[in-house]
């Protein structure tokens, strides 16, 4: 049943709650096993280190990676920066060109802008109306100077999933590294770094029921080993790629979340897809003219992004905020009134970017919540349209 005391949470792309099992796994590492995982001289340190290595193994298994290919970070923002800045710095002698897309997360786009300030060249490929790059354009953009392609696995606003294996094959064939920001994809769709020819992959625990402030970068070792220039200098932790005392409780939490995701991902995705489709059908029935943003089939199971013509999403969120926690798009840009760069990139103009809402479903979502939210959004949309018309 619905808990009327607080709004329904439908912003799971911004963050997720921590799974109770994950919390339980973490607790001993705050108080009991608190030693520094780098303290190799005593048993307590060895215990903390063993927990970190077990977590590394869980993360690796979720991705089809090997545990010595996982570098722990403070989250996906740091992993994106380490991948992009670290790889280009290391490959400076080989070339100075990077390819990405206009629909990436700010962590990738702003790291690329920084590269430009460092004198490197960045190509921002356009995306189609569904938010996907054209693979021929990608091929044509590669030059002898290209060292890295960074394309996200799944978009955090519109849910579109990229053809990872195809992009990876193109990058591999041309001898260019392929980085993917898979923060929204991990724990929801199948990721296999070997089959998908991924060289670098960013993820974050708090997007799949782990704690905030911890994530990882997968750095390929098998076949052609990827080398990165560290972006944090210090004690040489994480095989020199990321200095700083390890966040042992956070890493244990990430590992537990990854273990649960590996075992439960398919069942969770099926349930979320069903709920998401139910929400979409309810909105279509109750909101005249509503349209889907993003790809109709190649999309995250828990994402629904819709365009409600004539209804400003800001006003809609104000009207419905007592009932539901929703978002217009990315949490990092929510504070601004600028239209979403992702929605603009789809090429439909500013109106659609200002009149779109993102629903992010999650483990706690129920059919009752979906029906309630659809009804509240439909009511509010109808009221706002009347206001505009009168
Ligand atoms: C949330 C998110 C990030 C940032 O992750 P943090 O761990 O919060 O730094 C980066 N990329 C995408 C696609 C995201 O959804």
Automatic annotation (TrEMBL):
Keyword Calcium: no
Cofactors that this protein relies on: pyridoxal 5'-phosphate
A GO term for molecular function: metal ion binding
Catalytic reactions on record: (sulfur carrier)-H + L-cysteine = (sulfur carrier)-SH + L-alanine
Signal peptide: none
Keywords from the UniProt entry: 2Fe-2S, Iron, Iron-sulfur, Metal-binding, Pyridoxal phosphate, Transferase
Enzyme Commission number(s) from the entry: 2.8.1.7
Family matches, as PANTHER family: CYSTEINE DESULFURASE, CYSTEINE DESULFURYLASE FAMILY MEMBER
Protein name: cysteine desulfurase
Organism: Deinococcus yavapaiensis KR-236
């Amino acid at each position: 049943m619905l808990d009327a005391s607080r709004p329904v949470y439908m912003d799971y792309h911004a963050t997720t709650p921590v799974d109770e099992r994950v919390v339980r796994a973490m607790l001993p590492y705050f108080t009991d096993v608190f030693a520094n995982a780098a303290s190799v001289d005593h048993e307590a340190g060895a215990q903390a280190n063993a927990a970190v290595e077990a977590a590394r193994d869980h993360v690796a298994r979720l991705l089809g990676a090997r545990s010595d290919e996982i570098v722990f970070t403070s989250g996906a923002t740091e992993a994106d920066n380490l991948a992009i800045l670290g790889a280009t710095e290391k490959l400076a002698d080989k070339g100075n060109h990077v390819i990405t897309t206009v629909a990436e997360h700010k962590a990738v786009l702003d790291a690329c802008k920084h590269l430009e300030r460092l004198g490197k060249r960045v190509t921002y490929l356009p995306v189609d109306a569904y938010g996907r790059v054209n693979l021929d354009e990608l091929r044509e953009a590669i030059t002898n100077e290209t060292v890295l392609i960074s394309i996200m696995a799944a978009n955090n606003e519109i849910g579109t999933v990229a053809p990872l294996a195809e992009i990876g094959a193109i990058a591999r064939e041309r001898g260019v590294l392929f980085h993917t920001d898979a923060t929204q994809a991990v724990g929801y769709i199948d990721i296999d770094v070997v089959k998908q020819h991924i060289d670098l992959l960013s993820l974050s625990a708090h997007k799949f029921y782990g704690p905030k402030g911890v994530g990882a970068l997968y750095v390929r070792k098998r076949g052609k080993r990827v080398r990165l220039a560290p972006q944090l200098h210090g004690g040489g932790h994480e095989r020199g790629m990321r200095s700083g005392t390890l966040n042992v409780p956070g890493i244990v939490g990430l590992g537990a979340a990854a273990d649960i995701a590996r075992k439960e991902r398919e069942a969770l995705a099926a349930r979320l897809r069903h709920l998401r489709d139910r929400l979409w059908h309810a909105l279509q029935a109750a909101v005249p003219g509503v349209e889907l943003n993003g790809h109709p089939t190649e999309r995250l199971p828990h994402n629904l992004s819709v365009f409600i013509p004539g209804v400003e999403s800001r006003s809609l969120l104000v009207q419905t905020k007592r009932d539901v926690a929703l978002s217009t798009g990315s949490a990092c840009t929510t504070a601004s009134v600028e239209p979403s760069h992702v929605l603009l990139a789809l090429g439909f103009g500013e109106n659609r970017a200002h009149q779109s809402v993102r629903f992010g479903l999650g483990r706690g979502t129920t059919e009752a919540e979906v029906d309630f939210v659809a009804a509240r959004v439909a009511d509010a949309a109808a009221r706002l349209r009347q206001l505009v018309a009168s």
